[in-house]
Amino acid sequence: MTGTLAPAKQLTAADRCDRCGAQAYIRATLPIGGELLFCAHHGRQHVAVLRDKGANIQDESARLSSTPSKATNDER
What we know:
The chain has 76 residues and is of the alpha+beta class. It has one helix and three strands. A hairpin with a 5-residue loop joins β1 and β2 (35-38). The N and C termini lie far apart (60 Å). Residues 11-64 form the DUF7455 domain.
């Protein structure tokens, strides 16, 4: 068995921040087992310390700045 982690599933709207309950965009998988979920705001506050302690970080906060597709004006 290798020390690699299985790929984590993408976070969904059902995944909530453990600090405030907002939608989670960051998952920290702890080296002792378990995981913590954070919104982008709380993730920025905690991710550096968690990474220093060996946590694997899955950061999907870039999805917040992606541009949604424009709707067409076919209804006119």
